[in-house]
Amino acid sequence: MQRQRVWSGFLALLLAFGWWCGGWVDPALALTQEQKLLNEAWRTVNRAYLDDSFNHQNWWWVRERLLRRGLGDREETYGVIREMLASLGDPFTRFLNPEQYRSLQTNTSGALTGVGLQIALNGDGGRLTVVAPLVGSPAERAEILPGDEVLEIDGVPTADLTLDEAAERMRGPQGTAVVLLVATPGKAPRRVSLVRAHIEINPVIWQVRSTADGLKVGYLRLSQFNGNAPEEVAHAIAALEREGVAGYVLDLRNNPGGLLQAGIAIARQWIDEGTIVYTVNRQGVLDSFEATGDALTALPLVVLVNRGTASASEILAGALQDNGRAVLVGERTFGKGLIQSLFDLSDGSGVAVTIAKYETPNRRDINQSGIAPDIKVEGVPPTVTETRRSDTLEAGQDPQYDAAAAALRDRVAAQPSAPSSRMAARV
User: What CATH number is attached to the domain comprising 132?
Assistant: First the structure.
């Protein structure tokens, strides 16, 4: 009898302690379906997020506070998840409803419907900023530039919108219009009407170009690191090698990035051996991706960059610069040195979570600072239509390319002898 009273007393004490902690027992044991989805998103961030201080807040108590809310329906749950992620102060860690999640996955596979803008929230005040217009998109044709700010979308101020809310307002059926109020630094804001379109993302344009003194240049414009990009770049290099080019200009201007693995694969096409990028997780554990094997070509390389060169583009540019494989020409890059992974949630939605930061081979952390070019030249890159009709471009119309061609000529002249084509040797 005494033993039973002692056990009962211990059980009462345990229950009281659990109540005092606000739910010490795992709340997933008695949650509604809406609470379960919220908890699922919380656990994903808890396991993977780069900052183990969770923006200097008690992440466990964030969950407890939000779970106590009465979540009436799925849309309300989505709103609470977005609120939870916003508390991290990281615009790249975000929730995507099922439609947004499918759209993001489609974008990296090679096509999308929209206006063709890569956007981000600027860390200084959360302003909606253009990273880059996509090649061949309505936004590019309207001459919207990297660094422009989108102040309104169909008359709705963007200051009070999340990144996904802004993106959702820009999306819509093909053929419909959206009006943006766009501010270019140093100029008065202007209203731009864009007609949404189906945009086929062909990530590579390549051409043989000749300088005034007859140097044959292999020009590649890479617009995005999607799933097709590594294979398309390899095909372009093979074709240009057969044309007998003396060297290459790789154009990464206005390339907003994309898949990390695509950037690494393309770096290996240019670099024989050496570190491509370091990644650092929240435990401070350093990992690296290496080039180990013959590059597709050993010919001289110059890379064009600007403030629209971001993310995976910066990984590639930094790898080529730090390994001494290429000279960078243009403007300082965007400065996105964080890596996100996509995680599925059980209802078809998902979360993009910042899981690591990256450093260049020389251990440079370029987040929010970007990569400085070796040769600084201001300018606006030509549109995709102008690029494809390069025979109509005269000297001076693209000063950044002119400077890149001059730098390539110097690198070709500095070689003791022209290296053989490794690609041709494999054929």
Answer: 2.30.42.10
